[in-house]
Write a structure and sequence with these properties.
The protein is of the alpha/beta class and 351 residues long. It is 42% helix and 17% strand. Strand 5, helix 5 and strand 6 form a beta-alpha-beta unit. Bound molecules: nicotinamide-adenine-dinucleotide and thymidine-5'-diphosphate (TYD).
Length: 351
């Protein structure tokens, strides 16, 4: 089957894995990657597929509504997978405006453009919005987020994603736009920007720099390998029911401090350092304001209805991730040069 699909944010971490999967698996699809190339967007992530005949890159800021409408007019998309976003909680605390612009206004522009482009009929069309479990807020020691959990976002990032989810659903109920939303837990894997916990810890251990642990390190996150998320997005784009939301998670909860200690042990082994060397780098720092305590996802709807499941072995995924960062030193050095250096100094003090 031939389709023309718009994937936004395809130069980022998750988007690049989604693009690679779609371009390789669906040669009959024309895949258009629209990305502004912010600090987090990196076309190097797609160097292996960028000359594929079914792949096109368009530099586009989704906040620019004319540019977004122009893309729809140029390509005649029948599907959208929307991943472009400002995605880092800490940045949303220091500079929230960009989050509202990209995550809320950018999503509005895409919804309006899809509605206009598909005004002659919605048959065969889909607007798929990729979102986060952070919209549900914070859990105590027990329980899981289900698709029925009330939204309770607490950071500017999660509030902006919640706003975009609500608009996507409003466009479905009010205008009939065919939509699917997924809310996923924390991803990890190759190509993640090193402001996020796992690549930050790997990079700092490599450079024997302090490992900043917020608060007591007792916050809990559910970690999912990025390719499992890309597989879920593939399943949901093709088989998700319009008007529905689906939770995606790894069933893999880790206290931050335990995860950091595990990474220290893996890195000591990989770098031939004496066991215990990297743990000495752990440094407890001031907690993140409004730091959500625990995220845990119940993804049984997606598993039972559509047969998706995560790869169970975290140890394998983590080893693969560490190996990728160690053997892609040039990628890492390039992304941490420039703007990231200033951000890091602002967040954690001079290195
Ligand atoms: P990322 O920060 O690595 O990449 C975001 C991409 O969006 C970058 O390529 C950036 O250039 C692009 N972008 C930002 N602003 C833009 C704009 N105005 N116009 C066009 N492009 C723009 O993010 P990620 O971790 O890959 O997350 C992708 C999506 O998945 C986001 O919507 C995020 O909310 C969601 N999500 C992420 C996680 C996670 O753990 N990383 C978990 C659940 C959901
Ligand atoms: P992060 O990767 O920023 O993802 P999110 O905030 O979206 O869950 O952070 C994961 C967890 O690690 C979160 O509880 C905050 C914590 N953390 C630290 O302790 N130190 C750090 O330097 C960072 C970036 C995160």
């Amino acid at each position: 089957m031939n389709r023309k699909i718009l994937i936004t944010g395809g130069a980022g971490f998750i988007g690049s894995h989604v693009i690679r999967r779609f371009v390789g698996k669906y040669p009959g699809y024309q895949v258009v990657n629209a990305d502004k190339l912010t600090y987090a967007g990196n076309l190097e992530n797609l160097a292996d597929i960028d000359s594929s005949p079914n792949y096109v890159f368009e530099k586009c800021d989704i906040v620019d509504k004319q540019a977004v409408a122009g893309l729809f007019a140029k390509y005649g998309f029948d599907g959208v997978i929307h991943l472009a976003a400002e995605s880092h909680v800490d940045r949303s605390i220091t500079a929230p405006d960009e989050f509202v612009l990209t995550n809320v206004v950018g999503t509005l522009n895409l919804l309006n453009a899809a509605r206009e482009a598909w005004k002659d009929g919605y048959e065969g069309k889909l607007f798929y919005h990729v979102s986060t479990d952070e919209v549900y807020g914070s859990l105590g020691a027990d329980g899981f987020f289900t698709e029925d959990t009330a939204y309770d976002p607490r950071s500017p990032y999660s509030a902006s994603k919640a706003g975009s989810d609500h608009m996507v659903m409003a466009w479905h109920h009010t205008f009939g736009l065919p939509v699917v939303i997924s809310n996923c837990s924390n991803n990890y894997g190759p190509n993640q920007f090193p402001e996020k916990l796992i690549p930050l810890v790997i990079n700092n251990i490599k450079h024997s720099a302090p490992l900043p642990v917020y608060g007591k390190g007792e916050n809990i996150r559910d970690w999912l390998y990025v390719e499992d998320h890309a597989a879920a997005i593939d399943t949901l784009f093709h088989h998700g029911k319009s008007g529905e939301t689906y939770n995606v998670g790894g069933n893999n909860e880790w206290k931050n401090i335990d995860l950091i200690r595990l990474l220290c042990r893996i890195m000591d082994r990989k770098l031939n350092r004496t066991e215990g060397t990297s743990e000495k780098l752990i440094s407890f720092v001031k907690d993140r304001p409004g730091h959500d305590m625990r995220y845990a996802i119940d993804s049984s709807k997606l598993q039972k209805e559509l047969g998706w499941s995560p790869i169970p072995d975290f140890a394998v995924g983590l080893e693969k991730t560490v190996d990728w960062y160690l053997s892609n030193a040039a990628w890492l050095e390039r992304v941490i040069s420039g703007e990231y250096g200033q951000y890091y100094d602002m967040m954690y003090g001079n290195r």
